[in-house]
Write a structure and sequence with these properties.
It is built from 15 helices and no strands. The model has no long low-confidence stretch (mean pLDDT 89). By secondary structure, it is mainly α. The protein folds into 3 domains: 77 residues, Annexin V, domain 1; 78 residues, Annexin V, domain 1 (Orthogonal Bundle), CATH 1.10.220; 72 residues, Orthogonal Bundle (Annexin V, domain 1). Keywords: Annexin, Calcium, Calcium/phospholipid-binding, Repeat. InterPro entries: Annexin (IPR001464), Annexin_repeat (IPR018502), Annexin_sf (IPR037104). One of its GO terms (cellular component) is plasma membrane. Pfam families: Annexin (PF00191). GO terms for molecular function: calcium ion binding; calcium-dependent phospholipid binding; phosphatidylserine binding.
Amino acid sequence: MLHPHERDAIVAREALLQDNDTNYQALVEIFVGRKSSHIALIKQAYLSKYKTQLDQDIINIEPPHPYQKILVALSTSHKAHQADVNQHTAKCDARRLYETGEGSPGAIDEGTVLEIFTKRSIPHLKLTFSCYKHIYGHDYTKSITDVNSGELEDALKKVIKCISNPPNYYVKILFASIKGMTADRGAITRVMVSRSEPEMDEIQRVFKAKYGIELRETICNSIPSGDYRDFLLALANKTV
């Protein structure tokens, strides 16, 4: 019953206040999966409801985590840029990522990666990672794995997968959440509600191709009957 930006403000707050550990996955989905105009409304709703700035609350997370740097960079990008996409610039950015990553000895250059995340829109970043694969023959996430593996690298891989192939990213979350020992209602509801209009058709196609079973059937087999299951099935049936 809430406006989408109000709902996202609440999701962000709950993610920040989650017991024991910040739910970075939920925050990444907001900053990657929403348009800049929507992010601005989320921040306004967050400030109005909680009397504090979302960006500042992310910066103040304790203990510090590499996700903070990535989220702050993405937030800055939303404030500074529209959905500008430039093929030449994307190729240049892809080459910079290569030259400061697998193209040179040692770990990836954190500064270069965060600079690109800060200055480019989400559609442009998606094109950059597509160009990287076209030029070098594999995903940038593979180069991160080959160069080094740590908290920053793990966080970058998850964010980049969400940027590069949203349906595949959300399908994996849904399957893991629904088929887990105890269904992660927060993750299931968040994905089903937020992606019901932009890409639910594609999510269902990818889900069937990847796991050999319909999303609706998986929900029926794994979620106990009742209003909650009916709610999820209604969202799954809301296709165009």
